[in-house]
């Protein structure tokens, strides 16, 4: 009976040790900021862009798998190559205010191979002054 309990405890410890070892050898996405406020922009000036800087704070290559914007007026552009541990890169987000006067608040979902943060949500916001008629 004691042998079964000992084996059970060893099995449980092995699982926890294995899980923590996997987390140590994993990518970790870290964004400098996740929200950007364009403030007041003019519709007549056309699209505006912002670059969200991130780094790989993990110990394995980080891969951005996809980005999805909440609206067709928002277009994210992301690096396709793996990012080595300790390196930085950027996701560029462009918002087109044409025909969209007033306040805006758009989201971009970033999916990566980070096991703890598979999805990260970025947000852009601001206010569009309409074109003169």
Short description:
With 133 residues, the chain is of the alpha+beta class. Helices cover 17% and strands 45% of the residues.
Secondary structure topology:
Elements: H1 2-24, E1 29-31, E2 35-42, E3 48-56, E4 64-69, E5 74-77, E6 88-95, E7 102-112, E8 119-129
Parallel strand pairs: 2-8
Antiparallel strand pairs: 1-3, 3-6, 4-7, 5-6, 7-8
Description:
The chain is 17% helix and 45% strand. It is elongated and about 60 Å long. It is α+β, with helices and mostly antiparallel strands and 133 residues long. The strands form two sheets. Strands 1-3-6-5 form a four-stranded antiparallel β-sheet, with no helix packed on it. It has one helix spanning 2-24, and strands at 29-31, 35-42, 48-56, 64-69, 74-77, 88-95, 102-112, 119-129.
Task: Provide the descriptors you would attach to this structure in a database record.
133 residues; alpha+beta; 4-stranded antiparallel beta sheet; 4-stranded mixed beta sheet
